[in-house]
Amino acid sequence: MKRLVLIILLFLAVIIQTAVFPNVSVWGIFPELFLVIVVSFCLLENYLEACIWSVAGGFMLDLFSAKSFGLSAISLIATVLVIYLISFSLEFGKVYSKILLAGIASLTYYITLIIFSVLFDLMKLSDNLLHINWRIILIVAASTAINSILIIVIFPLIGYFNEWLIRVEKKLETRLL
Hints:
By secondary structure, the chain is mainly α.
């Protein structure tokens, strides 16, 4: 039951990320829904779920976007790995640590995205390499701020939803037994 609901949500998140968010961007900045979801699962210390969303969602995003195939998945997995490694030195119960992790996660995602975009373009021997300039740095900074705020706002909602799914799943198990 829980997996079926999460698969449906995965498809909805892909549709929202690829069809809706690019149309509501401000100065080329729009939230990264999958990043928000993945980091929320990390903050819930559910790294397996975060990895599943990273791989499945990342590849699905790449299918529906103009990015090189695998770029989103690699960036999301790198983000989960960095959060996992950093989380050992922070206390998750503290609000400031969640805000700090949200910012680090967003920066990790964008830096990984930029690095692998350049590497993928080099492998294609492309002439249109990504040139880092102040505009890109400002967009990354603004996107990091937006995503960090969204993570802090959406994280509790995903936590409540996850708990609700677990309760519903347990009720169904007891009825079937």
